[in-house]
Design a protein that fits this description.
By secondary structure, this protein is of the alpha/beta class. It has two domains: 8-128, NAD(P)-binding Rossmann-like Domain (Rossmann fold); 129-280, Dihydrodipicolinate Reductase, domain 2 (2-Layer Sandwich), CATH 3.30.360. It is 36% helix and 27% strand. The chain has nine helices and 14 strands. The protein has an eight-stranded mixed beta sheet with strand order 8-9-10-7-11-12-13-14, with helices on one face. A hairpin with a 2-residue loop joins β11 and β12.
Length: 328
């Protein structure tokens, strides 16, 4: 990549439903652009390119990886394809922004980060929540200690319709299910707000294809506080994150894409903080572009050691659940 340029040029591998949001977010960064998109269906790629003002459309992923005018690739493919295409992209000299989950196995994550470091390329799991403006305000409240210390955090996500419960999302071998679909938000945000996690446990129920339909995860932090995650494809929760403090609580609706927070003190007084964000991906994408343009190989917000650890926890949870199913 030409270090004299101030814009990172992206190619997108896939025409997944998140792509329009990625492109809209990239438009807002001021330091990145989308130059090409690919799909196995050329007409679909061309339609996306026309609708999103993307200059080039390809009918295969390798064309983007071989394009000398592409600096970085964004990978929102089926979860089981993240590892092979990220590896190929790095071997072709491209920086990589990988949609969550990063990969399905800890050893794959270790290999990719080692390869990126060897080739002096940027690599990250795309996790937008820590970059959202609302969390900068929440961190200020935590630092001021006005509500006391964090005692417990309750994360809830649910969706019982749409693409996330269809097709490959039900198949374990393709990386489907609610665990890999939501672990990045939970683990990254839990440690982002409350420090290192010491232990992790959980349980789940399953689709016929073997992927999790519901799961509950419980963690204990090194500071002896706790957090839980509940995810369901069967029922609809009041989606969000509730942070319980010694002297009150903060509720963040739809915490993974939040623009507001409701603060309740122990005397019952309430306050609402609003931080509008029309395209919530723009903040993480601007950060990734800054890293690439400045020769920084990993994000300090979502560093490799955390991503690797979280994927290993998911593997351990799934092994436990598989053994329980076999013994029942």
């Amino acid at each position: 990549m030409d270090q004299n340029r101030n814009t990172v040029r992206y190619g997108i591998l896939s025409t997944a439903s998140i792509v329009p949001r990625f492109c809209k977010g990239m438009e807002q960064t001021g330091n990145g652009s989308v130059s090409a998109i690919s799909s196995r269906d050329l007409k679909k790629a061309e339609q996306f390119a026309a609708n999103l003002s993307i200059p080039k459309a390809y009918d295969d992923y390798q064309s983007i990886l071989s394009d000398p005018e592409i600096d970085a690739v964004y990978i929102p493919l089926v979860n089981s394809l993240h590892y092979p295409y990220a590896r190929e992209a790095l071997l072709c000299g491209k920086h990589v922004v990988m949609e969550k989950p990063f990969v399905l196995h800890g050893e794959e994550a270790e290999e990719l980060f080692a390869l990126a470091a060897e080739r002096k390329l940027f690599l990250t799991e795309a996790v937008k929540a820590p970059h959202l403006p609302i969390y900068q305000e929440i961190l200020k409240i935590i630092d001021r200690n006005s509500l006391g210390k964090i005692c417990y955090m309750d994360f809830r996500q649910s969706y019982n319709s749409g693409p996330y419960i269809q097709g490959w999302n039900r198949e374990k071998d393709m990386g489907g299910g609610v665990l890999y679909g939501n672990e990045a938000y939970f683990f990254h945000m839990a440690e982002f707000l409350n420090g290192p996690i010491e232990s992790c446990y959980g349980n789940a129920s399953f689709f016929a294809g073997g992927a999790e339909q519901q799961c509950c995860i419980s963690v204990r932090f090194c500071n002896n506080t706790m957090a839980s995650l509940a995810v369901s494809n069967l029922v609809l929760f009041e989606n969000g994150l509730t942070i319980y403090f010694e002297h009150g609580r903060i509720f963040i609706p739809d915490y993974w894409k939040a623009s507001k927070a409701l603060i309740t003190t122990e005397d019952g007084k309430t306050e609402t903080i609003v931080c509008p964000c029309e395209y919530e991906l723009q903040y993480e994408l601007k950060h990734y572009n800054e890293c690439i343009l400045n020769g920084i190989l990993t994000s300090p917000i979502t560093p490799p050691e955390k991503t690797i650890r979280y994927i290993r926890w998911c593997e351990e949870l799934q092994k436990t659940w598989e053994n329980e199913k076999k013994s029942s």
